[in-house]
Amino acid sequence: MVSGSTLERRAARSPFAGVLAPVLTPFKHDLAPDLERFARHCRWLLAQGCSGLAVFGTTSEANSLSVDERSELLAGLVASGVDPARLMPGTGCCALPDSVRLTREAVSAGCGGVLVLPPFYYKNLSDEGLFRTYAELVERVGDARLRVYLYHIPQMSMAGFSPALIERLLGAYPRIIAGIKDSSGDFANSKVLLESFGPDRFDVFVGTERLLLQNLRAGGAGCISATANVNAAPMVALFRTAEGDDADAQQAKLDAFRALIEKGPVIASLKEIVAHASGDPAWRDVRPPLVELTRAQASALTAELERRGFAMPGLRGA
Amino acid sequence: MVSGSTLERRAARSPFAGVLAPVLTPFKHDLAPDLERFARHCRWLLAQGCSGLAVFGTTSEANSLSVDERSELLAGLVASGVDPARLMPGTGCCALPDSVRLTREAVSAGCGGVLVLPPFYYKNLSDEGLFRTYAELVERVGDARLRVYLYHIPQMSMAGFSPALIERLLGAYPRIIAGIKDSSGDFANSKVLLESFGPDRFDVFVGTERLLLQNLRAGGAGCISATANVNAAPMVALFRTAEGDDADAQQAKLDAFRALIEKGPVIASLKEIVAHASGDPAWRDVRPPLVELTRAQASALTAELERRGFAMPGLRGA
Hints:
Number of helices of chain A: 13
Helix content of chain A: 40-55%
CATH architecture of chain A: Alpha-Beta Barrel
Largest interface: A-B, 38 and 37 residues
CATH superfamily of chain A: Aldolase class I
Order of helices and strands of chain A: HEHEHHEHEHHEHEHEHHHH
Mean pLDDT of chain A: 95
Strand content of chain A: 5-15%
Low-confidence stretches of chain A: none
CATH class of chain A: Alpha Beta
Strand order of the largest sheet of chain A: 2-1-7-6-5-4-3
Structural class of chain A: alpha/beta
CATH topology of chain A: TIM Barrel
Number of strands of chain A: 7
Largest sheet of chain A: 7 strands, parallel
Oligomer: homodimer
Shape of chain A: globular
């Protein structure tokens, strides 16, 4: 069993320590965002033990939403009763005014933090250009409550955070620059960040539960992972018992589940699973440019999940 | 000399045949877009002989602008007296509602066409997902006046248009799908498109004047090129005299100028040149994540231009 003190130390360092879900965004048939289903899924994820909700991430199809849509969904979610302190919305856009607006709104709503993607259109960005992007954001928001988590996902954004850039940002905005989501999939990178900046003043979340145990052992804060949308409870269990004897066995089970999800397109697969488990086919809809699973892909996936005895308890009643 | 009939045939096929500038977007010192300078530059470019203005392209830092900012700049430009039939604004965003809004506004304003970038966040998009993106856009805009130019710039958007996808789009929306800007830099690709779909029902614009003469000889419509912002007149001259004896010599001169621009970051270099030629230093400002030239880069560039006798006639008075 894990010593209480390890968990307590983690929690004292980071209000988000644990497992966060980058929440799927459900759409209505006309592809408008569906606040009701969204809020229901958020409540279910918190009931599963998620320490936070990274709404408007890559898995959320956030960049397929307009700024107004993100703004309305966030306001609606908070109005529905979800604790804003548990929210780490994605607010990083290509256009600075968009990032400033969404970040301001998140801070005003009481969100515990924001996860900020770098601008992702131009390629080969300089550290100077990235520094200015974040500096302008922090200065324009101008609120001491702001907590920025850097979103490092170079395979998607084509721009990444070098240790030198993070050092400069931390020097300019200590406390405000609160951590990173490292979705590079390269734990060597996470480890360098932990050794250089963490764990006391800089939270490192890995972007896949495959690296959860390694990250916790190295002093990291947890993970923010797509699959938490359907498999959060076992991930949370590993987080809570990471010092226990069966931690490696738990990790192996998480890996096996993830491997199944990664056989197909991840977002469409997760939406298929929620649709299937909730009996609510509307969950299947994705916005272009993504496409839902084919019937054959969907059948193969759900058959395999049934064979493994997979369930999402409490989802139908949530 | 070119036979009048060749130019006439091109003009009859394509209202934009010629040289288009993806217009630089000037900013004020607080990084707000500067409509006055923008409209002045647009008028100057038309006076240089540009057949159209591809405002809000890559060179325009369009993805660093919010949708509201693009909307206001377009409305302001038309209100300032620029002929909307000459405008081909970029309206393709990652989020479908944004693309629909900007495209609708462009059609309502009387723009001759729109240049539509594919969504550029998700990678490895399927042709089905891209088809749906453009189909939803065309259907939602629902206006027979719409003319869509596909924006093929895979090195930046990380998504491209296969011949099969273009075939499907042309089949579904003939007339509305009007052409392509091929910024791949690979003329073999442009040639395949011309042979498959052009030149009568599908305009092929190359994305660099390096390929202008090749494109015209193969039946293409012209080019849409960043450097037109500062060097349009010689490009227009080549377009008009492409069948003349000195066409290759003209092309070589264009290539030499472009090589100079490509020594540094293109957008910052072009803004430096406009700032220098107009005596208006405000032109240097770029939005993060881009950065302006260093003093050393700027001095080297302008010294080399002076050595070559480069000028932008009429710019100061425009």
